[in-house]
Amino acid sequence: MRNNKKLFVFSLLFLIIAILFLVTAFIKETFDSVNLDQIIFHFFIPLEDETGNFFSYGFKYVVKGVLLLTFFFTLVIFALRELNIEFIIRVFKKVKVINLNNIIDKTMYPFLVLAFALFLYNTNKTFDVINYIKSYNDYSELYENYYVDPTDVELDFPDKKKNLIYIMVESLETTDLSLENGGYREKGIIPELEKIALRNLNFSHNDKIGGFYQLAGTSYTAGAIVGLTAGVPLSGGIGKNKFNLYQKILPNAYSLGEVLKREGYNNYFMMGSDKSFAGRDKYLESHGNYKIFDFISAKEEEYIPVDYNINWWGFEDKKLYDYAKDKLIELSKKEEPFNFNLLTVDTHPIDGYLDETCKIESELTKFENVFACASSMLDDFIEWVKKQKFYNNTTIVIVGDHLNMVKDGIHDNIPGNYYRTVYNAFINSINTDCNNNRVFNTLDMYPTVLAALGVKIEGHRLGLGTNLFSCEETLSEELGVDYFRTEVRKKSHYYNNCLFFDRC
């Protein structure tokens, strides 16, 4: 009885440690270089569906495997106990009888201690916990010194306002271009997007096709959307504050959607995934009053069946582009200009969704074929837009939301000195008289997209972003990339009190 009780306690502790390991792995796989601020942020942000919140969302996908593993492990130990196996060994001419049960009893808890120590080591390596604790009160004055409140900036729109189609492609980076044109592949797997960048305007970190680097708070989709449209990262606002974000996220951040709404634009956001994930709907609805069409909308409006479940995240990009065409035709008939946003999903890790209509290249992995297909689909959509009456007065911006989070498979053998950047291309935009080879990040897209529409921006800066069409140095260029990255990671009294919470 005593042994069974000990086995029960061991199994319970093993279960807890296994869950901690797998939840950590889930967070790392989902959000890549996420820090503790972002983890805590998503722990509290509701998903407003059956998954509840970030923790339960991850828990849903790991708990089954953990329970099965624990059950199997416990069953094996229990069976070995019941068999009561003994070993007879000879040590210095003496015969000893060793009972396996005794070995199990003596090694159970040391094993757990070792496993927990490995968990702590892995967690610290992944999330830099020790340095986070050390720097808990390490605040930056980056915002106090450099943040430009968009409400204080004069924005001069052209007499004839241009439409905007803003396409955010899941995990699209320049690494998948050909080596010849700035990627790291002998033969690029996204040739259509490569041609688009070559034939149109691409802001690059070098003299080939390049892009922007991501910051803490922009390395996952929700954070990227905020960074791309508000010029600030989505950080956790950690400290003595409580998370009262449920009605409005970043209430005092004045974003692209709000600027365009004020100028009479119809703001529309279409995505194949659930808009409520990580509070994306709360951000978009409170910053520009976007009309959002998502996975849930598609079911409610009977575009897809209620039980539709073709991929993990929602409905596929093929449908997304078809729905987008219909909506764009509808929006183009209105008197007001439109700000139409698309967020794709097929290329989402771990291995994406390979549409049945895709051409399969045998030399490519499944995930590589997903990206190849995504490139072809997007090109077809762009070509369709170019044939429409509204195109001449429409600027198209294509960006990746963040770097690909997958560590193995698609980006194997990339050396550490290769600078991975997020893709960008501007179609039918204004031109720049300045050098388009720049050092820039996600936040610089906010004023740059506005400028692409022909908007003149007083001082060329909004939030922490700089208009790349101007000759003004970005903060990354002015302060240095490493310094800027470090300062953005730090806490900020201004960010916490004036942007994250309405406490200025």
CATH C-level category of the largest domain: Alpha Beta
Order of helices and strands: HHHEEHHHEEHHHEHEHHEHEEHEEEHHH
Number of strands: 12
Ranges with pLDDT <50 over ≥5 residues?
Answer: 46-54, 237-246
Q: Notable features of this structure?
A:
504 residues; alpha/beta; Alkaline Phosphatase, subunit A; 2 domains; six-stranded mixed sheet; two-stranded antiparallel ribbon; 17 helices; 12 strands; globular
Structural features, described:
This protein is of the alpha/beta class and 504 residues long. It has 2 domains: 2-134, no CATH class; 142-500, Alkaline Phosphatase, subunit A, CATH 3.40.720.10. Helix content is 42%, strand content 11%. It has helices spanning 2-31, 36-44, 54-83, 100-127, 129-134, 142-146, 191-199, 221-230, 256-262, 280-286, 295-300, 317-332, 366-386, 445-452, 475-479, 481-489, 493-500, and strands at residues 86-91, 94-99, 155-156, 163-169, 266-271, 291-293, 338-343, 394-400, 424-427, 456-457, 461-462, 465-466. The strands form 4 sheets. Strands 6-5-7-4-8-9 form a 6-stranded mixed sheet, sandwiched between helices. A hairpin with a 2-residue loop joins strand 1 (86-91) and strand 2. Helix 1 (2-31) packs parallel to helix 4 and helix 12 runs parallel beside helix 13. The radius of gyration is 26 Å and the shape is globular. Residues 46-54 and 237-246 have low confidence and may be disordered.
Break the fold down into its secondary structure elements and pairings.
Layout: H1 2-31, H2 36-44, H3 54-83, E1 86-91, E2 94-99, H4 100-127, H5 129-134, H6 142-146, E3 155-156, E4 163-169, H7 191-199, H8 221-230, H9 256-262, E5 266-271, H10 280-286, E6 291-293, H11 295-300, H12 317-332, E7 338-343, H13 366-386, E8 394-400, E9 424-427, H14 445-452, E10 456-457, E11 461-462, E12 465-466, H15 475-479, H16 481-489, H17 493-500
Parallel strand pairs: 4-7, 4-8, 5-6, 5-7
Antiparallel strand pairs: 1-2, 3-10, 8-9, 11-12
